[in-house]
Write a structure and sequence with these properties.
By secondary structure, the protein is mostly beta strands. The chain has helices at about 15-20, 75-80, and strands spanning about 25-30, 55-60, 60-70, 85-90, 95-100, 115-125, 130-135. Bound molecules: zinc ion.
Length: about 140
């Protein structure tokens, strides 16, 4: 089935991230001045304001910080509703907003804050793959 959800437009700032997703890697920006990973990509480190930013390959692993069940959506997302959006605390640091799959959105009480999650990718077109996360281990 053709991918029918909105597709991001890479910019010079975000291109390294999208190059990574196409290869099945979750690339993350890290400041070489304070060594902290931040998400989303920025020209200046949000922690120390340095412009010395490098890209590292993240583990793609983290823990569920919080989530919400989306019952209404537009376009291709409407076909997936209800679905779960989530903030993931990345193992490398900072927090990523994403879609969480492999959970039952009709039973939100079964989704455990703190559970281990791992990134996966779905191909949107020949140039872009979109990351999402899946629960790999129940419980906090
Ligand atoms: Zn910094």
């Amino acid at each position: 089935m053709a991918y029918n959800k909105p597709i991001p437009t890479p910019t010079p700032l975000t291109q390294p991230f999208w190059d990574g997703t196409r290869e099945g890697k979750l690339m993350l920006p890290r400041c070489t001045n304070c060594n902290r990973v931040h998400w989303y990509p920025r020209h200046l480190c949000p922690f120390c304001h340095s412009d010395k930013i490098e890209w590292i390959e993240g583990s793609g692993e983290g823990r569920l910080h919080t989530f919400a069940v989306q019952h209404r959506a537009f376009g291709g997302w409407a076909e997936e509703a209800p679905f779960v959006t989530a903030y993931i605390d990345l193992n490398e640091g900072d927090r990523m907003l994403t879609v969480l799959r492999g959970v039952d959105p009709t039973k939100p009480e079964s989704i455990k804050i703190g559970c281990k999650v791992k990134v996966e990718f779905e191909e949107a077109n020949d140039e872009l793959s979109i990351p999402f996360f899946r629960v790999v281990e129940e419980g906090a």
